[in-house]
Automatic annotation (TrEMBL):
Domain of life according to the entry: Bacteria
NCBIfam families assigned to the protein according to its UniProt record, in alphabetical order: transpos_IS66 (NF033517)
Domain called Transposase IS66 zinc-finger binding: residue spans: 122-164
Protein name per its UniProtKB record: Transposase IS66
Span of domain Transposase TnpC homeodomain: 35-111
Residue ranges constituting the Transposase IS66 central domain according to the UniProt record: 184-442
């Protein structure tokens, strides 16, 4: 700037400073616009788009709102009479056709179509016809409707003839009978299971089940159905839940997570407030998994501390700080959460491969690729392989992270901050081969994605 007056030089310097400040403001506004755009896209998807997961589940009793969990409590009436007799009307349905691949694993019944004996003559010469072969003409999918019947237990009584002859007194022995699911009730194990399955798995409320029973000729009130659910749950499922919890607390690894639900007309809370359904499940032990759900009105870490009282193994969760209230456990982080944060930070346009977020995303992918190779190994061998293969990738990742300087408030900054805050727990998987790289085991249970997990699902504490 030779030849310029001091006033002009100062003015140019002020303009440069102002330009830099405006450039920073524009960059921050771009970050804010990107975040608001992401929020809007996610909101529109949750409201109008197809999704395999529900953003929230509504519990409660309202004229315009179906109730999922607490309908039984609302409809229950211990004075509701048990029907003394039932009349069952059988019915049939026409066979339905569907795609052949849907019937690939179903049992097959062959229907042989033959000519009648008086038609086994040739129309040309009148000679006898013999069997040449057979061919498949078509396949149909047949549905056999559920049948309702009454099980009448008749006990056989026996008398000792010798005692009767010698003493003149009869010794009578009665055959044992199986204990009823509910005393003084017509409910059988299959009936209660059917009602619970249709309500909690298929989402059919009791008032619709009441009509469905009536269509089959059985008059059962929704109050009676509600009583069956509650009494069977208290007598049979709660003890099972407690037994499973004792077994779960003895495991080496426990996965935990919580999801938002909304409860209508919950005492002391507004209908718009959020509650939580907590899930706890065993790790990859090779045995049948244990999965337990527990409803709580808040997200306080005290609920996890109380539930996991007595557990002192590895606790695998997301980065929620509330799990820090659980004492005497070793926290294990979730690389799936971190990978998703990097994925969300990758630019939607421009040089994606050269972005910092894509580099972090690729580090996560490398660790997951190694885990897929080690899936069939024993925990001891998996630990050794992790020290040999995963540890160098992990060390390279943390070294790379120190060189990253993200823009404050950006998606990338969130991923970096999460990673730094969770560094210790994210490294824990190197300590034991039973620990998994992510908390996906707990995440998948809430939406019934695993058939194995469905077998051990027990819900407790959902009285609203």
């Amino acid at each position: 700037m030779t030849g310029l007056t001091p006033e002009v030089t100062e003015y140019i310097s002020k303009l440069e400073t102002q330009l830099q400040e405006q450039f920073k403001t524009v960059e921050l506004q771009k970050v804010r616009i990107d975040r608001l755009t992401d929020i809007l896209v996610k909101f529109q998807k949750s409201m109008y788009g197809q999704s395999s997961e529900k953003s929230k589940y509504v519990l409660g009793e309202d004229n315009n709102q179906l109730s999922l969990f607490n309908e039984a409590e609302v409809e229950s009436n211990r004075h509701a009479p048990e029907p003394n007799k039932v009349a069952v009307a059988g019915h049939t349905r026409k066979a339905k056709r569907t795609k052949e691949e849907l019937a690939a694993n179903l049992p097959v019944v062959e229907i042989l179509c033959e000519l009648e004996e008086d038609k086994l003559l040739c129309e040309e010469c009148g000679g006898d016809l013999r069997v040449l072969g057979k061919e498949t003409v078509r396949e149909e999918l047949e549905i056999i409707p559920a049948q309702v019947r009454v099980l009448r237990y008749i006990r056989q009584n026996y008398v000792c003839e010798s005692c009767e002859k010698e003493t003149g007194e009869a010794t009578i022995v009665k055959a044992p009978t199986p204990a009823p699911v509910i005393k003084r009730s017509l409910a059988s194990a299959s009936t209660v299971a059917h009602v619970m399955y249709k309500k909690y798995v298929n989402g059919m409320p009791l008032y619709r089940q009441e009509k469905d029973w009536a269509n089959q000729g059985v008059i059962l009130s929704r109050a009676t159905l509600a009583n069956w659910i509650i009494r069977a749950a208290i007598d049979w499922l709660v003890p099972l839940w407690e037994t499973m919890k004792c077994h779960l607390l003895k495991q080496a690894v426990i996965h935990a997570d919580e999801t938002v639900i909304q409860v209508l007309k919950e005492e002391g809370k507004k209908p718009s407030s959020e509650s939580r359904m907590w899930v706890y499940c065993s790790g990859n032990t090779g045995d049948s998994p244990v999965v337990l759900f527990e409803y709580q009105p808040t997200r306080s870490g005290e609920h996890a501390r109380r539930f996991l009282d007595g557990f002192n193994g590895f606790l695998q969760t997301d980065g929620y700080s509330g799990y820090g209230k659980v004492p005497e456990v070793t926290r294990c982080g979730c690389w799936s959460h971190l990978r998703r944060k990097y994925q969300e930070a990758i630019p939607k346009s421009g040089d994606v491969e050269g972005s910092v977020a894509a580099v972090g995303f690729e580090y996560c992918n490398q660790l997951f690729a190694i885990e897929r190779d080690l899936a069939q190994l024993s925990p001891e061998k998996r630990k050794l392989q992790r020290q040999e293969r995963s540890k160098p990738v992990l060390e390279a990742y943390w070294s790379w992270l120190e060189t990253v300087n993200p823009l404050k408030g950006s998606r990338l900054a969130e991923a970096i901050t999460y990673s730094v805050n969770q560094k210790t727990s994210l490294n824990t998987f190197l300590e034991d081969g039973c620990i998994e790289l992510s908390n996906n085991r707990a995440l998948s249970t809430g939406i019934y994605n695993s058939q194995d997990l469905q077998k051990t699902l027990v819900i407790s504490g959902v009285s609203a």
